[in-house]
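As noted in the main text, all predictions were made from sequence alone. Below is one such record, for Glycerol-3-phosphate acyltransferase 5.
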Amino acid sequence: MEAWRVFSSCDKRVVVTKTPRVLVERFVKEHLRADEVIGSELLVNRFGFATGFVQGDFASIFSRAAKMFVDEKPTLGLGRASDSSFLSLCKHHHDHQVLRPLPVIFHDGRLVKRPTPSTALLILLWMPLGILLAVIRIVIGLILPMWAIPYMSRIFGGKIIVKGKPPPPVSGSSTGVLFVCTHRTLMDPVVLSTVLRRKIPAVTYSISRLSEILSPIPTVRLTRIRDVDAEKIKRELSNGDLVVCPEGTTCREPFLLRFSALFAELTDRIVPVAMNYRVGFFHATTARGWKGLDPMFFFMNPRPVYEVTFLNQLPVEATCSSGKSPHDVANYVQRILAATLGFECTNFTRKDKYRVLAGNDGTVSYTSFVDQIKKVVSTFIH
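Prediction:
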């Protein structure tokens, strides 16, 4: 924090690094608020693919940095003792207003921990056992009844922590309860059904067909056409309980995306459920790559832990039945769920997430399973 205080106090901030510029530029500019980045460059072949070679040694990077400040030396330099040649370009420090760094809300990639050499080696050694363990866990979830899954999950290293009191199943001609969950992974509705010990249909947006096939609970695929989706949700609620994640996509960091207000228009039997998870090696969802592998990665973790907190059903005065607007109801549910988890509410939407994680052409770029493993291997080798 002391380094950040000094760095952010300057009017113009330039980051000099031996890391390839393309790997750090967006983070440095958007979150550290740097103005320029000077680094090495990745060599690209005539087909537009990175070759793996890096262009630009220490001397060339230093030369470019020196040319940028040929007229006036920078006021302040921050670095390690090994960076003494760069620091020799700089004057002394002077204070200005300190800025706050912007938090990282959206990021991608499967790895939970920084892949240091020791961690990378541990992940590589764990992979074969993790794949086998994931297959066993998935098969158990498909063949066993819901009431037996929590007991078997403990045997294979999983754990579910339940807080609050879940509502009883609907009876008679009553419409079902709409469980409104935070969206941490694709496993949210499955874990909720496991806790309630009955199969509750879940509303889905864009999960893969393989995930639907492997799902032990019924899924209702929405079209993102408001009227059509509203009819689907009403029809399901007339048959019983239903699970919906109004964020529309997952978020790994302690933030909640803006809730879609559609659910608030369709029922006043709303039970908010705060979902959270803890894993050791692999994140359970990714915006890029094959989404069918998302459940596999979640179950490959040595000890995946899920936390499920049931809040009280919304009182009638907090629903649209009392005259409140759907947006007010959705925002209220978002706030109480964020307070329960200790998260921060945002106005970001699913589109904002995919815009941040998109490629240059605006489409989400593809990162295969092999690419993820290559990243771990290369980190360990270096």
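The two ends are 29 Å apart (CA to CA). Residues 360-369 have pLDDT under 50 and may be disordered. These features were considered when defining construct boundaries for the mutagenesis experiments described in Section 2.9.
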